[in-house]
Amino acid sequence: MSEPAVIRIGTRASLLARTQTGWVADRLRSLGHAVTIDTISTSGDERGDVPVPRIGGDGVFVRELEAALLAGRIDVAVHSLKDLPTAETAGLALACVPARAVPFDAFVSNRHESLERLPPGAVVGTSSVRRVLQVKALRPDVEVRGIRGNVDSRLRKLDAGDYDALILAGAGLERLGLQARITELLRPPAFWPAVAQGALVVQARADDAATRAAIAPLDDPDTHAAVAAERTFLAALAGGCLAPIGAWASRHGDGCLQLGGCVLEATAAGVQRILAEAVARPHDTPETLGRAVAGQLSAAGADAMLASARAAAQRPPAEGGGQP
């Protein structure tokens, strides 16, 4: 099998996306491959002032990259795996999942040392419904206010005093060299990350065997297994990447894969949350584990909770309301 002469990598235009893609490109170059990088604008980036569900929901940060890949304009696309819908696009493959960065959300504040120690009435910035509901579950006495934009622009708003704290992905801060801005990592079981948070994926055409072989050495088997369990869990619950669902899989002390997950719902009485967890049996696949944990949550009422969340997301925002 001949190797590709040049591997053309597609990326989003944000600093974080370009940094992540640069990391992949550097490792491919270290393996002796010639690499070029093409920057492709996505609808999620172009409409940064609009809440993601109103742009089109799942896939708003990947559709244009996938179209370029299918058209042959690029050979691979680098994504944050949490942005990729669980329904795989025909003709494309998740060819490589490198080692995962920190999978947890980060509490970032200039004045307060933790989410628990925020004063009542403090303003917390995040627009993810999963993060919003978890903040409200833990601190119903603070105000959660929407925020969009890249990491730098969000941090500037924090530094300007528009917010008392932000909730950001720890992996994004780590990859941008901004670990010092992390005040507290928010971990399960109190605060669950998004499915596949902290993981990258290198997507290729399914029939491009040469490119897939070239990028295969970047794959991390433990990370690949963990995110396979998490994504199967999400798909089994029929939840998209914007649903109020969290999950995290990791190796148990005996080496077996362990998966925990949660589903959240806003109710008149406050935030309802249900949890489930399981450890893979010796012959279980990551997909078997994902379906098992999803089944536990479905039996506990998750389907009705998610149906309620989908209905709420489809309702138009109140006049003057909505998250920026």
Give a brief description:
With 324 residues, this protein is α/β, with parallel strands linked by helices.
Describe the structure.
By secondary structure, the chain is of the alpha/beta class. The chain has three domains: 7-98 and 199-219, D-Maltodextrin-Binding Protein, domain 2; 105-186, Periplasmic binding protein-like II (D-Maltodextrin-Binding Protein, domain 2, 3-Layer(aba) Sandwich), CATH 3.40.190; 234-314, Double Stranded RNA Binding Domain (2-Layer Sandwich), CATH 3.30.160. 33% of the residues lie in helices and 22% in strands. The protein has eleven helices and 13 strands. The strands form three sheets. Strands 2-1-3-10-4 form a five-stranded mixed beta sheet, sandwiched between helices. Strand 1, helix 1 (15-30) and strand 2 (35-39) form a beta-alpha-beta unit. Helix 9 packs parallel to helix 10.
Keywords:
globular; D-Maltodextrin-Binding Protein, domain 2; 13 strands; disordered C terminus; alpha/beta; Double Stranded RNA Binding Domain; 324 residues; single chain; five-stranded mixed β-sheet
Write the layout of secondary structure elements.
Elements: E1 7-11, H1 15-30, E2 35-39, H2 43-46, H3 52-55, H4 63-70, E3 76-80, E4 92-96, E5 105-108, E6 123-125, H5 129-138, E7 143-145, H6 151-159, E8 165-169, H7 170-175, E9 184-186, E10 200-205, H8 209-215, H9 221-236, E11 245-251, E12 257-267, E13 270-279, H10 286-299, H11 302-314
Parallel strand pairs: 1-2, 1-3, 6-7, 6-8
Antiparallel strand pairs: 3-10, 4-10, 5-8, 5-9, 11-12, 12-13
